[in-house]
Amino acid sequence: MTYDQFIASTSDTHPNEEYNPLLKALWYDAKDDWEHAHDIAQDIHSSEGAWIHAYLHRKEGDLSNARYWYRLAGKNEFKGELKNEWEQIVKTLIENDINS
Length: 100
Description:
Elements: H1 3-9, H2 21-30, H3 34-41, H4 47-60, H5 63-73, H6 82-95
Helix pairs in contact: 2-3, 2-4, 3-4, 4-5, 4-6
């Protein structure tokens, strides 16, 4: 799958069944369903899951919680725009074919 294919899928009603939980969380976030995205992310126990969790708490405005998750992910706190971080996470997952 490519990044453009993933973006195109966000116009669908439901995420692709073949998406791993990491991509499903980001898919729901793209659909403005923060709660569903967070529910999925909090059940992913990997550095990638922690990164998504950090991003979601940063989006929520809970920066202290976001910093905790960035530390667990082994990432520096992202200082740019939310859309840029979302894009970076999605591209990293797709390029590295990361499954959770």
